[in-house]
Amino acid sequence: MLLPLGFLLPLLFDRFERPGAVVVAGLSVSLGIELVQVLTSSVLGFTYKVFDVDDLILNTIGVVVGWVLWRIVVLALGPTVLNSFRLSRTYRRRGHRTADSATFES
Q1: Would you give the distance in Å from CA 60 to the centre of its chain?
Q2: Contact, 64 vs 23, CB < 8 A?
Q3: Which member of 11, 43, 92, 97 lies 3.0 to 4.6 Å from 104 by CB, making a disulfide possible if both were Cys?
Q4: Nearest Cα to 82, choosing from 10, 4, 25, 2?
Q5: Residues 31-40: pLDDT tens digits?
Q6: How far apart are the first and last CA of the chain?
């Protein structure tokens, strides 16, 4: 379920190039999904979904597989091609595009 997350995080953000960072992010998202299911069950008053450790493990494995696929694409295409997809640091800080993407500021 979270395989695209493992591919897109390192594609868009350079801090997720390390596999450990992607695993922590994927585990956090998966845990969040499981906790929302538990809270939904408690609010509804009946068992809607059950907290399942297997989901945590399989979703985290999916994130790792996504990261491995991203790494294969980087090795095949080269890092310079993929840098065009990456959001710049200034874009993330200020919330808008910078001079390196002048087509968006005209």
Answers
A1: 11
A2: yes
A3: 97
A4: 10
A5: 999 998 888 8
A6: 39
Contact present, 3 and 68 (Cβ < 8 Å): no
Mean pLDDT in residue range 56-61: 94
93 pLDDT tier (thresholds 50, 70, 90):
low
The 3-class secondary structure across 81-105, one letter per residue, is: HHCCCCCCHHHHHHCCCCHHHHHHC
Kindly provide the b/e burial profile for residues 24-61, where b requires at least 16 CB atoms within 10 angstroms of the residue's own CB. Answer: ebbbebbeeebeebeeeeeeeeeeeeeeeeebbeebbe
Left, alpha or beta for 95 (phi > 0: left; psi -120 to 50: alpha)?
Answer: left
- Token pair for 83: 């840098």
